[in-house]
Amino acid sequence: MSTTTRTPGIAADLPVPDRTTRIGPPTAEMEAKLNRTAGIMTVVFAIAAALAYWRGHSIWACILGGLAVVLFISIFSKKTDVGQCPYCMANFTATPMLVKSGLSLCEKCGEYSQIANNIVKPMDPATYSDSPKFESALFKQGSMPNACAACGAPATRLDSVTSSTMNKTLAAAGAVRLMTGTPGLAVFSSKQASISIPYCDQHRNAVTIGFDWRKKPILTWSSLRMMRRYLAVNRAKEKY
């Protein structure tokens, strides 16, 4: 499967909301919804475990049965705290690991927020990481802002970046294709993808491509500002 990523003009920065949210216990409505979901999944895993046992797959039967027990117990357990994305106000589960990391990526709008003392606030768009760490979805028929992916200056070249593994270990091909004007994205299989990234003369290696745990291709950026510009020009398009 392949698609072409166009390069429009330099995208403007998305606005940053002037609000914060607070992490706390889920509402009664949210807790009831979580319990319903856990109850349904308990039944599904229990049935799957019974079928696996009936067909002689005892190991799978134990695994699926164990998951069913864990889900059943979770119905009567204290629920994990929740927070809200300050950008789109979507709810997220505030696991201890997430709170400790101090960084939250909204599954709905793709924006990053900071967490400190149970307060969630938009991350400063100027944040820059020495190595790529800000993840974004990859869009079908997506467009790449015609600007350096590291600093936003006018692009002078395109560097091809390729992934051939399920993790984020990437191989930069270094091909210069600016004359074509079409940075291309090609998803060759569930374990391989390639994309061309625009850069100025001063920067390189600020964006990588890889796959997440769902086997979906993702981009990982050093510049939060340029990641947000990429989201801005592709917001209405379909994700991989």
For the sheet with most strands, the description reads:
5 strands, antiparallel
Amino- and carboxy-terminal Cα gap: 11 Å
Oligomer: single chain
What shape does the CA trace take?
Answer: globular
Report strand order across the widest sheet. 1-11-12-9-10
Number of helical runs? 4
What is the overall pLDDT average?
82
Total discrete domains: 3
What low-confidence regions span 5 or more consecutive residues with pLDDT below 50?
1-7, 165-190
How would you portray this structure in words?
This protein is α+β, with helices and mostly antiparallel strands and 240 residues long. It has three domains: 2-16 and 127-234, no CATH class; 21-25 and 80-122, no CATH class; 28-75, no CATH class. Helices cover 26% and strands 25% of the residues. It has a five-stranded antiparallel sheet, with no helix packed on it. It has a four-stranded antiparallel sheet with strand order 2-7-6-5. Strand 6 (112-116) and strand 7 form a beta hairpin. 30% of the residues are buried. Mean pLDDT is 82; it is low at 1-7 and 165-190.
